[in-house]
Amino acid sequence: MKRKRYTEEQIVALLREADEGRSVDDVCREHNVSKASFHRWKSKYGQMELRDVKRLKELERENAELKKLVADQLLNIKVLEQVNAKKW
């Protein structure tokens, strides 16, 4: 899995720099970030605080685990239905 270049803490700090009055161009140039990445982060994290961002990541991870559990259960159900559908 590809390692992310910036942590959530760094992203929030970068967004706060731009909120404090520095231009987006200057912030992006200083941190070597494209404007597209900056605006993607801004749309995702917006005005969130660091604790909110950490909670969002935790919820996303939990949601992924739950989706995997549901998919596994559905697969088990389908297999059992196929086994029970055969005439003995």
Automatic annotation (TrEMBL):
Pfam families assigned: HTH_Tnp_1
GO MF annotations, alphabetized: DNA binding; transposase activity
GO BP terms in the entry: DNA transposition
InterPro entries recorded: Homeodomain-like_sf, Transposase_8, Transposase_8_domain
Protein name according to UniProt: Transposase
Organism in which the protein naturally occurs: Ruficoccus amylovorans
